[in-house]
Structure prediction request, 458 residues.
Amino acid sequence: MKIGVCGWVLAFGCMLAVSCDSRSADLLDTVRQRGELVVLTTNLPTTWYIDRDDNIAGPEYDMTRAFAKSIGVDTRYEVFDSTQEVMQALRENKGDIAAAGMTITAERAAEFEFGPAYQEVSEHLVCHRKVKNINTAADMNSVKIVIPASTSYIDTLNQNYPDIEWSVDESAQTSELLQKIANREIDCTVLDSSIFDNERRYYPELDSKFTLAKGSELAWMYRKGNPNLTQAIKKWFAQYRSSGELAHMLEKYYGHIDSFDYVDVHKYLRRIKKRLPKYEAMFRDAAKQNGLSWTMLAAQSYQESHWDPKAKSPTGVRGIMMLTLPVAKSLGVTSRLDAKQNIYAGAKHQAKMKKIIGEATPEPERTWMALAAYNVGRGHFSDAQKLARELGNDPTRWLDMKEVLPLLSKKEYYKKLKHGYARGNEPVIYVTRIREYHQLLEQKLQKQPDGQTGKQDG
Prediction:
C-alpha cells in the first residue's frame, strides 16, 4: 500500500503535475518549473521515516532536501512499501527520482540512470542465531532462504550463486521477513549491511551467517535522457561530499552502530520493560524542566548506571546518573543514592553542558557533544575543541570531535593542553552507546500504543 505525502496538494493533482512532464524537455527544467522535486522512497530507517515527534527524518530525506535546495525547489515525497513499487512508480512517471537505498546493478542501469554512489554496503545472508553456521556457498542449500521481490539481492544470487535454492515472497516486506526469522518461521533472508546493522538492534536474534557480496553501491535512480539533471546531481554531490556534509549525514544515522553486543542489547530491552517504568516519570519531568529529550536522558542514565540508583564506580561517582560529589553538591543534592535527586541534578548538569556547547553547533550534534563533555569533563572537552582548531578540524561537528578526543591520551598532545591527560576514547564510546540505547528506546516506544515502556518490577 502506498502512503501519499502530498500535504496541501490533492492526490490527483500530485500525479497530474508529474505525468504532464514533457518527455522532450530535460527533467531538471520540468522540476524547476513545477517548483518541487517529487521523490519516490520507502518507509525505512535507512531511507525516510517519521519519528516519535512527527518529524520526518532519514538519510534519503536529508540528501534529497539538500539537493532540492541547491536547485531552488521544494520536495514532495511519495512513500511506498517496497523498492519494487518504487521502481514501478518511476516507470509510470509518478516521480522524478527514486531515493530508496537503490543498489546499482547492471539490470537496473540498462533501464534507468544512476546518480553518483553515496554509500557502499555489503549483502548478508541473515538468519536466526540458532541456524547453524554457514561457511561455504554450498552450505546455503541447507537453509530456507526467502527474498523480497524486485531487490538487488535476486541479481546477486542469480549471477554469483546459480546453484543455490531460494524463493521470492511477492508480498512480504523486509520487516515482515525479519519477523518471520525471529519467530523461526523461515531460516534466512538477504539484507544490505546498512539495513542489517539497524534492524538487528530490534531483532537481537538476527545474525549474519554469510557475506554474499561486498562493495555494492547505493545511488539515486531516475529516467534516462535527462543530461541536465545528471549534471546538476553530479555538481551538487561533488560539493556535498567535499564539504563534509555526506560524512556528517552518515555519522548522524550510522555513527552509533559500528558495534553490537547481543547480550547487552537483549538485557537492555528487558530492562526497558521491567526497570525503566519505575523512573520514567522522573526522567520525563526532569527533561521537560531542562529542555531535554527524556528518552535521551533515560538512555544516558542507562549507560551510566543501568538504571541502578545505588550504582557506584571505582572513581567515586554514584547514583542513577553517576554524579561526582562536587557536581552533586553544586546542584544541592543531599543524597546521590536518592534516584529523584540524582535524575533532576543530572538533567540540570546535562542542560548546562548543552548551554556551554552553544547554539552554533546544530542538533543532534549539540546533544552528542554535551554528552561527551558530561563524561570527560568540560575542561577536557574544551581542550579537545582547542586542539581541533589547531589541527584544522571543526570543533562544532561531532564527526571531527570523534577523531580529536582520543588524542587527549597521547602525550604529544595533552602535554600542551591546559587540563592535561584524559581518557579521550571514553567519551566517544560513551556517546556511541547512548545513541544506540536512545534509538532502541525510541523504537520500543513507537510500538507501544500508550507510549509507556512497561510494568514496574515488583
About this structure: Residues 1-23 have pLDDT under 50 and may be disordered. The chain has three domains: 3-118+219-254, 119-216, 262-446. The CA atoms of residues 95 and 254 lie 28 Å apart. The radius of gyration is 24 Å.
